[in-house]
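FIELD: query
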Amino acid sequence: MKHLISLFLCLMTLSSEGQTLVKEFTPGDFGSYFYFMGNTQKGFVMNVYNPTFGVEPWISDGTNEGTFMLKDIGPGASNSLFSNDAFSNDTILYFFAFNENNNNVINLWRTDGSSNGTYFIDSLGPNYPNKYYEEATFYKGEFYYFISSQSYKSLYATDGSQKKPRKIYTFNDSNYSSRSSIKVFNNQLYFYGYDKDHGAELWTSDGTSAGTKLVFDLNTGPKSSIYNNGQMARCQDKLFFIAQRDIKEGYELFYISTQTGGPWLFNDYTPASNVSSNIYLIEGNDSFFMFNVNNIVRPTTYVSDGNWNNTRKFHEPKDPDPNDYFYTYGVHQTKNFTLVSSYTSVTGAELFKSDQQFNNLGLLRDINPGIGNSINGNITKIFEVGKKAYFLGFNFMLGNDIWVTDGTSDSTILYLEFAGNNQSMSDILHQWNNRLFFAETIDVNIGKELYELNINRSSSIDQQNLFNSGVHPNPVSAGQVLYFSNQACSFELYNTLGQLVWQGESVDGKSTLPDKIDKGIYYLSVTKERSNIRTKIIVQ
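FIELD: result
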């Protein structure tokens, strides 16, 4: 299959109009190792492997001359970077690196995008803040983070200068149970902290030692109320969190309010004794937020403006499949439209259309048809330039490629296809200063390198040919004759799992479908000479 796609790419996507090579980090056909970390005013930062310097931080302003290594933190070929986790306010970026003498010690560094502005901030020991769990944040012009061990957890703040960071508060005997996200709400920091009298409970801080205090002891006594690393979500005048106040009620959705205080139970979605609702929170916009309730017959996504009476299901199709369920990963808000990344048992993980009030307007496009996933749940990003949004979409025949949408199904199309059937769904697309960059293989002769995407062109992919091979009839029945508009051609038929179920060559422009093929959706790849086109067919 891969060689067919490669032929198709040679004809359709290797145009210089589609992209511009910014930097070839490893000359020759060896692909480079690098990942995007975040932005500064001077450019975007990457962790890049170079055989001479190892894995180190690099900067790029989108030009070859402006792409260079910021600092050789680990001298010589030793690696200093081990993760692309970083925190950025688009001016300063904080990242993590191994101590040059001890890989069990992790250090906090910062950069403003210049070599002189890249320097050590603090030693974190063996642990570092996890970006996915939001264990660090920017607040009042400083960067706040935790240093944790089995016996303590301390909150620190740095203004990004080379002076020693401020220690704000230390929690003793954390035993990792209170590793927590940090959320800014009502001009205060909120997070979970542990002490022996209260367990792990919700705390607040104004950035000073004196202003750091316990909000309440929800699960009274030394028992902890924390759930899922203290995940929280803001909505209007409320801060929502999941907690357990007693074992009989289980973990449920609570909130505090700037108007009415709290804590208040929002709702017990599983009122049976000793059963938790196992809720996952998703921040939406200033007026609405979303959450998944998991411990029921099927996972369900809800939308709320913060009031129980205005809380509803996000996905309610007119003719629901009794076996269908809906689970949401995140909200992608642009200036012109809203997309929601969700998984259903019918479509797999795909993007769904919404509006500012989070009314579900349906599936954007089933890029990986059937139950296959086209997006990578939690890490999918939408990059908006002009009135369009670009994202990585996966299709089992095409691999992982760049797609574009204006928020409508018909205009959601493949924009740039990479060389080879790339199976990776990693975060390889990045935006800086209204420009888009990607890390992938366009030319197999130079491998995976850094490119800028040309967003001012029409798609070079022939969408009609991509999804219409001129095969009829469609739908078709088992044992029926298929007719090909390309008289002499070879073909391969795949099911929605990407498994090859039938292949052959047409005779006088036709071929008979096997008698024992199952009903369902299939994908047909038709090749004639050096041209390859693909289509979806239905066996009924």
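FIELD: remark
The two ends are 25 Å apart (CA to CA).
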